[in-house]
Amino acid sequence: MYSAANTIWVLLGAALVFFMQAGFAMCEAGFTRAKNTGNILMKNLMDFCIGTPLYWLFGFGIMFGAGTAVFGWIDPFIMKDYGAVLPAGVPLWAYAIFQTVFCATSATIVSGAMAERTKFSAYCIYSAAISLFIYPVSGHWIWGGGWAQQMGFHDFAGSAAVHMVGGICALIGAKILGPRAGKYSPDGKPRAILGHNLSIAALGVFILWFCWFGFNGASTVAMDSDEAIGSASLVFFNTNLAAAVATLACMIFTWIRYGKPDVSMTFNAALAGLVGITAGCDAVNPFGAAVIGLVCGILVVLSVGFFDRVVKIDDPVGAISVHGVCGAAGTVLTGLFATGGTTMKGLLYGGGFRFLGVQLLGVAATVCWTAVIITVVFTVIRKTIGLRADAADEVMGLDRSEHGLTTAYAGFAILPEEGVFTLTGEVPPASETAPAGSAEPVVTAKKAQKAPGEPVYTRVQIVCRPASLESLKTAMNGIGITGMTVTNVMGYGAQKGKPEYYRGTPVEVTLLPKVQVDIVVSKVPVAQVIETARKVLYTGHIGDGKIFIHDVEDVVRVRTGETGYDALQSDEE
């Protein structure tokens, strides 16, 4: 007998978890460089489309089949009887699509950690392996009636089963793959490689946070009783609370540690809190959820720094720390803070060490299974078709080399990278010089001699903060300057910009936004222009700007052909 409430609840949850693919795509695209955006989006589309038929053919049967405590059964097309594992009142196909989208989530986690240097063909293969047997086998242990579930291992919505599995695959893959070109200097110090669009990354975080209510909430797979409604309500509250506390903790921690709150790391912390609470969102009270969020919000910062600076594993989006480390931490912390049931009381609530020990054992076994099998998969790929893109393709960008896509942002200007390096840390060689016979000889123009008394033209070039532009324009108009050219530029002075941090890594050279104002004067004294500009721009702080003075040989008005002094005057004069 089917329950309409339960079925609708599960299908709604499936739709929300599917939409998490959009969140992951936006996060990964925003935290990486513009030249790889199309590649990132393609991967997030294809891991779902590859995983869906494979999970239908083999994954669901391996995960939920009533085989042994270690392995389900091989059941192509989901033809056998799964009545023993189906939630009350939920049809088989509703439950199957709900589990399919969870499988796709585990596979998509890996793409972010291995972004910007992985062959697309290799990605398709290892994504298939995750959906085909890596995730289903450990999922059988945890959710399909396997040995861990029989022992009392509790992972309500997948901190370990989904997120930690994806995080471990990401860790092994990023280690075997190696860092991106230019990520580490010759002395081993990490370089900050900034993501190109924090707005897109923020959108991804909010999408994921919203969809997590389906990820965790719909895992109750019931909404037809007072008990089920109460459980779902608690899950919603705990999920939101843990994410908010983790975000707040990270903001304060990075503010103290780096002098300013780190934006991208705080985005990661929101996801870390969501991952951490996923295992025990039904079993802990709000106090426990807040503590789990607090731990994950600080742990993700320490973990990202550890992998980046100590272990030298390059993870552009922090997937290893967010999903792997915080997924494991949240599962273990459930063994401390669980408050429900006689067999599911945490250590701090009188449950003793057994439940905590089961949580630790389940995490360790899942880590070992995932690490060993994915290592074999990555090794086979590396020895056959190759895992990493060519160095030249990586520098150019995978959008072009892997997909023939010139840019994912046609019609938008993309700033050049501040530094591009090859795998050895050297600057790529310049293109070959032109043949000797094809070069035009250099001709130096002779400077025209001005007659005595002829006006002198001077170009005053002012580089200043964008915020000072309006005040400068007003002041120049006040002394009779009626024409100027304004250009938005990027640059730094002798101090190489103010030292900043990106995800805990110092940014070695910061190109700061500046405004360049060019004025050619003749009638107005140059000294007056300079003194007026200095008074307007002066604050006493580094970065007030520079003023450059150049001689101008002549001026020509294109419309009328007037030259010299006349070309500088308005038509009314």
What does this structure look like?
It is a single chain. The chain has 573 residues and is an alpha+beta fold. The protein folds into 2 domains: 4-219 and 233-403, Ammonium transporter fold, CATH 1.10.3430.10; 457-567, Alpha-Beta Plaits (2-Layer Sandwich), CATH 3.30.70. Helix content is 53%, strand content 7%. The strands form 2 sheets. A 4-stranded antiparallel beta sheet has the order 2-5-1-6, covered by helices on one side. Strand 3 and strand 4 form a beta hairpin.
Write the layout of secondary structure elements.
Blueprint (H helix, E strand, L loop, with lengths): L3 H28 L5 H28 L27 H22 L6 H23 L4 H5 L7 H19 L20 H20 L8 H33 L4 H15 L8 H25 L8 H19 L15 H31 L7 H6 L1 H6 L53 E8 L4 H10 L6 E7 L8 E3 L2 E3 L4 E10 L4 H12 L8 E7 L11 H4 L6
Antiparallel strand pairs: 1-5, 1-6, 2-5, 3-4
Helix pairs in contact: 1-2, 1-3, 1-7, 2-3, 2-4, 3-4, 3-6, 4-6, 4-12, 6-11, 6-12, 7-8, 7-9, 8-9, 8-10, 9-10, 9-11, 10-11, 11-12, 15-16
Query: Secondary-structure element sequence?
Result: HHHHHHHHHHHHHHEHEEEEHEH
* Alpha plus pi helix count: 17
Q: What general outline do the C-alpha atoms trace?
A: elongated
Find the count of extended strands (DSSP E, 2+ residues): 6
Rg measurement, Å: 30 Å
CATH class of the largest domain: Mainly Alpha
Give the helix/strand class: alpha+beta
CATH superfamily of the largest domain: Ammonium transporter AmtB like domains
| Strand line-up in the sheet with most strands | 2-5-1-6
Strand content: 5-15%
Count of the separate structural domains = 2
- The overall pLDDT, averaged over residues, is 90
**Unreliably modeled segments:** 419-440, 442-448
**CATH architectural label of the largest domain:** Orthogonal Bundle
